[in-house]
């Protein structure tokens, strides 16, 4: 008799579990983005690896959206996603406190990541005519300048490395009107 009551009790909970699985609660996707990017910064490390982790995550996100900027379809969706990713990255960088000395090889790695992000966005914008993408270029330019300022504020010596690495691409950045990014990089 006791076993039949316990089975009834377990079936009751299993039924409620099925109701929960059948009708999930809607979740705001921005909360998911904030939650996943809050995990980017390892608390207490205070080393360059925190910056490299955040920039690597941004590079993966940007590369996924740059593929959609093909010159045929509307640039609004991918550009807005890139802008949101850069904003989240700058927010994550603002919460990093560097407590150890950053080596030259780490500065070079951070500079390579920044240059790769900047050049992938600039090259993707080059697929469109300037009239179509000018408003997005202005927004992306100010976001990239903010990203460069956030990184150079954390790492002493990064501005010199960015100047060296982006020096060959000044004409490309100037032709596509990424002037704030050039100014932030010291060019």
What's the quick description here?
The chain has 187 residues and is mainly α. The protein has helices spanning 2-22, 29-38, 48-66, 76-94, 104-125, 130-154, 158-166, 170-175, 179-184.
What does the model show?
This protein has 187 residues and is an all-alpha fold. The protein has one domain. Helices cover 73% and strands 0% of the residues. It has helices spanning 2-22, 29-38, 48-66, 76-94, 104-125, 130-154, 158-166, 170-175, 179-184. The longest helix is centred in the last third of the chain and has 25 residues, at 130-154. The N and C termini lie far apart (84 Å). The model is unreliable at 29-38 and 40-44 (pLDDT under 50). It comes from Hydnum rufescens UP504.
Provide the domain count.
1
Q: Residue share in helices?
A: over 70%
Low-confidence stretches: 29-38, 40-44
Strand content: under 5%
Gap between N and C termini, in Å? 84 Å
Topology order in helix (H) and strand (E) letters: HHHHHHHHH
Derived structural class: mainly alpha
Number of helices: 9
Q: Could you report the average pLDDT, rounded to the nearest whole number?
A: 76
The number of E-state strands comes to: 0
Biggest sheet features:
none
- What is the general shape? flat
Rg from Cα? 23 Å
Transmembrane segments: 82-102, 114-138, 144-170
Protein name: Transmembrane protein
Keywords: Membrane, Signal, Transmembrane, Transmembrane helix
Signal peptide: 1-22
């Amino acid at each position: 008799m006791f076993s039949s009551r316990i089975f009834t009790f377990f079936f009751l909970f299993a039924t409620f579990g099925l109701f929960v699985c059948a009708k999930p609660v809607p979740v705001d996707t921005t909360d998911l983005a904030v939650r996943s990017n809050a995990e980017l910064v390892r608390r207490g490390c205070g080393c360059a690896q925190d910056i490299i982790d955040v920039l690597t995550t941004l590079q993966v996100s940007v590369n996924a959206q740059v593929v959609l900027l093909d010159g045929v379809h509307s640039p609004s969706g991918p550009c807005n996603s890139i802008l949101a990713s850069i904003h989240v990255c700058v927010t994550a960088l603002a919460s990093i406190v560097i407590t150890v000395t950053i080596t030259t090889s780490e500065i070079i790695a951070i500079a390579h990541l920044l240059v790769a992000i900047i050049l992938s966005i600039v090259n993707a914008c080059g697929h469109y005519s300037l009239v179509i993408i000018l408003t997005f270029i202005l927004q992306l330019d100010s976001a990239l300048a903010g990203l460069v300022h956030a990184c150079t504020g954390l790492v002493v010596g990064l501005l010199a490395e960015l100047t060296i690495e982006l020096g060959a691409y000044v004409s490309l950045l100037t032709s596509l009107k990424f002037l704030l990014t050039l100014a932030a990089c010291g060019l």
